[in-house]
Design a protein that fits this description.
The complex is a heterodimer of chains A (about 120) and B (about 130).
Chain A: H1 14-40, H2 49-58, H3 61-86, H4 92-121
Helix pairs in contact in A: 1-3, 3-4
Chain B: H1 24-50, H2 57-66, H3 70-97, H4 105-130
Classes of the chains: A mainly alpha (about 120), B mainly alpha (about 130).
Chain lengths: ~120, ~130
């Protein structure tokens, strides 16, 4: 069966491959909780601004879980994007630039997400 | 340490769409890649949209009202399908990676497809009813 057994591809380290697998499994668990609470239990499928603020303040575990989810999902998506870009067979110098860009995007997205979590928790305070 | 044994795909992403010699597992892989790209785009759009939370109730709640349009609901349905498939297929790949279920991977892939349909019906139906 073609490509059935996942392994690091040429240009991908075992560490990145392992992080991709583990973060993927963690995402499934947290995404299920996130989806049920934010979309399945919400009366109209989506929480209002006031509901989100109250929810984050009343259950401190929620913003912690969302922050952890953010780190996992950003890491998984960027390592996965890198795997796809490797299919284009880029030169090593190009790959170094791509790696740097992906790190910058990852740090920016994570920083922005964590700032946003605090902005919601502190809304109106 | 890199894995030097696997040769790179010489046809690039066009190899994904080449049906020649492609078996069920190959198609599973391709759908996994396409769903990954879609979910990545959605993730960053979702992050940008959530920025409305920092702008206050008017900005966020008006966006929520806007998000109930049929076109956006259709997009959300695609996210549900892609998310369930990508997640379940990821579990299959992870199991296979550690030597579990390698001999039954084809059946597992059919199971993934079946569960994707069931999950989509459950969550999709709930989403449409909620709106």
């Amino acid at each position: 069966m073609q490509n059935a057994v996942s392994q690091p591809k040429a240009g991908e380290s075992y560490l990145l491959w392992f992080i991709k697998i583990v973060s993927g499994l963690l995402i499934i668990v947290i995404l299920f909780i996130h989806f049920v609470v934010n979309h399945y239990l919400a009366p109209e499928g989506l929480l209002s601004h006031a509901e989100v603020v109250a929810y984050y303040r009343n259950y401190p575990i929620v913003p912690i879980m969302e922050g952890f989810f953010l780190v996992c999902v950003v890491s998984h998506s960027l390592i996965g994007t890198r795997s796809i870009l490797l299919d284009l067979n880029p030169k090593k110098a190009v790959m170094r630039v791509i790696d740097a860009l992906l790190v910058v995007i990852g740090l920016a997205a994570t920083g922005y997400g964590i700032w946003l979590l605090f902005a919601v928790i502190n809304w109106g305070a | 340490m890199e894995n030097p044994e696997k040769k790179p795909n010489t046809r690039g992403i066009w190899d994904w769409f080449d049906p020649r010699g492609r078996n069920v597992g190959g198609w599973g892989f391709i759908i996994n890649r396409i769903s990954a790209i879609g979910l990545t785009v959605y993730l960053y759009l979702h992050l940008v949209m959530l920025g409305k939370l920092a702008q206050g109730p008017e900005a966020y709640d008006s966006f929520i009202a806007f998000a109930k349009q049929p076109l956006i609901l259709f997009g959300e349905m695609l996210v549900i399908i892609g998310g369930i498939y990508h997640g379940l297929n990821g579990v299959r790949i992870a199991l296979n990676s550690f030597g579990v279920g390698v001999s039954t991977q084809k059946q597992l892939l059919y199971g993934v497809l079946g569960l994707t349909v069931i999950g989509t019906l459950i969550f999709g139906w709930r989403m449409l009813l909620a709106h």
